[in-house]
Amino acid sequence: MPKPYTPNDKLSQKAKAEGYRARSIYKLKELDEKFKLLKSGMTVLDLGAAPGSWLQYAIERVGPKGIVIGIDLQEIEPIEGVDTFKEDITKIEEINKILNSQQRFENRCPRADIILSDLAPSTSGIKDVDQWKSIELSQAVVKIAKDHLKPGGTCVMKVLRGADFDEFLKELKKEWKNVKTAQVKASRDRSKEIYILLNG
Ligand SMILES: C[S@@+](CC[C@H](N)C(=O)[O-])C[C@H]1O[C@@H](n2cnc3c(N)ncnc32)[C@H](O)[C@@H]1O
Q1: Tell me, what's the pLDDT at 55?
Q2: Engineered SS bond to 187: which of 2, 61, 90, 193, CB 3.0-4.6 Å?
Q3: Ligand 1 midpoint to CA 44 (Å)
Q4: What's the chain's average pLDDT?
């Protein structure tokens, strides 16, 4: 059974007390602790990044030598050391324009060591439609990863599990050397939310 939605649950309170913008921080922290994802000096691209708790955590972990870029449909309040852009990640040409404008990143190559996606579609309330929208967003993330991830880099993305999930995973396994899945304790609804890790 899904956990009931309680806006002021313990993790939301903890996030607030620790200065993070969302309880989602603990999902990334859990994945980072398990898979050793983020290291000093890395370039991180976060897709679907608002309000920004993953960006806050990422910049802490990569430090001043790292680059952290966040993109979302919604405006992201500034975070020191982080570049943010308001764009729809399914508009691949616009995303390419943002990421290929190297001057923005001090002429350093903006290819990412890691691409993160906690993207969540706006929900229709119809389970199958929402799960399909989540797969569509994930397909856009994979396209971006193909163009903007360094060789050997890692892509971590949230997907809502549904009827099309197994087929999607099967396709990914044809194209990527390593494909793993993980669930996190911090998810409100672990029966639906799953993270896919791609590498190679
Ligand atoms: C669960 S929130 C991300 C929370 C974030 N990881 C954090 O810790 O603050 C999901 C985000 O996906 C964004 N999103 C959904 N569809 C999008 C799209 N097509 N392009 C860009 N962002 C999108 C939403 O605007 C929302 O901010």
Answers
A1: 98
A2: 193
A3: 16
A4: 91
More confident site: 98 or 197: 197
Where exactly are the structural domains of the chain?
Answer: 10-199
CA distance 54 to 9: 19
Whether ligand 1 lies within 6 angstroms of the CB of 89 is answered as yes
CA distances from 27 to 11, 15, 70 (A): 10, 11, 17
C-alpha count within 13 angstroms, C-beta hemisphere, residue 111: 10
83 touches ligand 1 (CB under 6 Å): no
Tens digits of residue pLDDT in 124-135: 888 888 899 999
Percent of the chain with pLDDT over 90: 78
Whether CATH 3.40.710.10 fits 10-199: no
| Binding site membership of 149 for ligand 1 (Cβ less than 6 Å) | no
| Pocket of ligand 1 contains residue 24 by CB under 6 Å | yes
Rounded CA gap, 91 and 94, in Å?
6
Pocket test for ligand 1, best of 11, 28, 54, 73 (most atoms within 8 A of CB): 73
pTM of the model: 0.94
